[in-house]
Design a protein that fits this description.
457 residues; alpha/beta; Aspartate Aminotransferase, domain 2; binds pyridoxal-5'-phosphate
């Protein structure tokens, strides 16, 4: 049985009520990541920090020592048993415990725009509170189609080619479950967002990983070519890319597109960071010649409008692919929050100035973090998009990414995310950690100051 850490599907599953068993799993599972063998030995450096974190049994029973009940072993279906405790939650809990500044989780520490929040309040007051139409409130489907036309030039039918989902996370799940058969091969580029592997596992797919390597995380085209087989059903793309900030170049996308057409392979394209494309223009794979008919484009409101808790997402695909996505969506959630959909339609029709300002703000934040990290002594890899930046931590002499993040939280008071869990082979990520700059400038500066003061080579 494979045993590894994974990220939560949503990087924002936070809060004191979501404590899980980090103390038991973190060190044991990390040992497995590194050695291929699980270990029951406690991790000395973390055991002290963990003493106040509830154990797995506390979670199961929901009890503390004062109200004991029979404790049952944890149960999970085989298709999900390798996906362990959510490390973002654990990191955030550690951040709270150590008073660390959280540059780990990818959600803003500032609020979304007033005009969108007001639209949601108005929708609630106006009584838009019952089940929405399954594939989306008509006005939102229209707004998504308008935005897609503006972004790609493609005219899509809002009634037949757009499905509104509960965040991009549900778009991903509905796409995998609706279009993948057990045994189908799906190619992922590692490092990758955690929900891809988990939902592919639920769909019974065989995951084929191709590792993107620093400094530019370029696509190894020959490896891709030789990985595609007659069983390959789809390639999953994510550009701008979490965690590296890489944006797939036009040349890379052209080659991928021609391989897909040649081999009759679908593309599932996760574009949640499309409006955070800083160094080059975002290209939707669906807009490349011959690709629309074989692409599902997935996106959401959360990153662009700093409203990650709203969970409004969508999938755009030609009718023959939308059919499968909708079949899965119908039985996953059926419909998503009605008033938020009405407000999302208003959001998507924001003037161009909104997007310009968003990028400008993020570029200022990025400059603070990137310059700060360089001055601390990290090797910072170029990030073209998203609100993440990946660095090489090895100048500081820690054994690997998890050991470095442990040190950073406890001794420096800053949270970063170890990247090894984003890989099929965790060794590939052991030198890299990810920081986010979706925080206010004061927070970013304070984190840099702490690192300057306390991190020693
Ligand atoms: C690459 C990527 N895809 C999808 C999501 C999830 O999006 P949503 O919050 O809309 O479900 C995230 C969130 O962090 C992400 O980083």
């Amino acid at each position: 049985m494979q045993n590894k850490f994974t990220w939560p599907s949503h990087e924002m599953r936070l809060g004191p009520s979501t404590f899980l068993n980090f103390s038991k799993h973190f060190c044991a599972d990390f040992n497995f990541i590194r050695t291929g063998r699980p270990s029951s030995a406690p991790c000395p450096s973390f055991s002290a920090a963990m003493s106040a974190v509830p154990t797995q049994n506390d979670v199961v029973s929901g009890q503390t020592e004062s109200t004991q009940k029979t404790q049952q072993p944890l149960q999970v279906a085989k298709r999900l048993e390798k996906f362990k405790t959510t490390i973002f939650t654990q990191m955030s809990n550690l951040a709270i415990k150590h008073g660390a500044i959280n540059l780990g989780q990818g959600f803003p520490n500032f609020d979304g725009p007033e005009f969108v929040k007001e639209a949601a309040i108005q929708a609630v007051i106006d009584g838009k509170n019952q089940y929405a139409r399954g594939y989306g409130v008509p006005d939102l489907n229209n707004a998504i189609a308008e935005r897609f036309k503006k972004d790609t030039g493609f005219v899509v039918d809002p009634e037949k080619e757009i499905t509104v989902t509960s965040g991009c996370t549900e778009a991903i799940a509905a796409t995998m479950l609706g279009l993948i058969n057990p045994g189908d091969e799906v190619i992922l580029f590692a490092p990758f967002y955690d929900s891809y592997e988990a939902t592919l596992s639920m769909a019974g797919a065989k995951v084929k990983g191709i590792t993107l390597r620093p400094p530019d995380f370029a696509v190894p085209i020959d490896e891709l070519r030789s990985t595609i087989s007659k069983n390959t059903r789809a390639i999953l793309l994510n550009s701008p890319h979490n965690p590296t900030g890489k944006m797939f170049t036009r040349e890379e996308l052209d080659v991928i597109a021609s391989l897909c057409i040649e081999n009759d392979v679908l593309v599932f394209s996760d574009e949640v960071y499309d409006k955070l494309a800083f160094e080059m223009d975002h290209i939707s794979p669906a807009s490349l010649p011959g690709m629309y008919e074989r692409t599902v484009t997935m996106n959401s409101l959360g990153k662009t409008f700093s409203l990650t808790g709203w969970k409004i997402g969508w999938a755009i695909a030609p009718p023959h692919l939308t059919w499968g996505v909708r079949q899965a969506h119908s039985y996953l959630t059926f419909a998503t929050s009605t008033p938020m959909q009405w407000a999302a339609a208003i959001a998507l029709r924001a003037p161009d100035s909104y997007y310009v300002e968003l990028k400008r703000d993020y570029q200022a934040k990025k400059a603070i973090l990137v310059e700060g990290l360089k001055s601390v002594g990290f090797k910072v890899y170029p990030s073209s998009g998203t609100y993440f930046v990946v660095v090489d931590h090895t100048p500081f002499g820690l054994e690997n990414d998890v050991a470095f993040c442990e040190y950073l939280i406890k001794e420096v008071g800053v949270v970063a995310i170890p990247t090894s869990v984003f890989y099929l082979n965790p060794e590939d990520g052991k030198n890299l950690v990810r920081f986010t700059f979706c925080k206010d400038e004061g927070t970013l500066r304070a984190a840099v100051d702490r690192m300057k003061e306390k991190l020693r080579r």
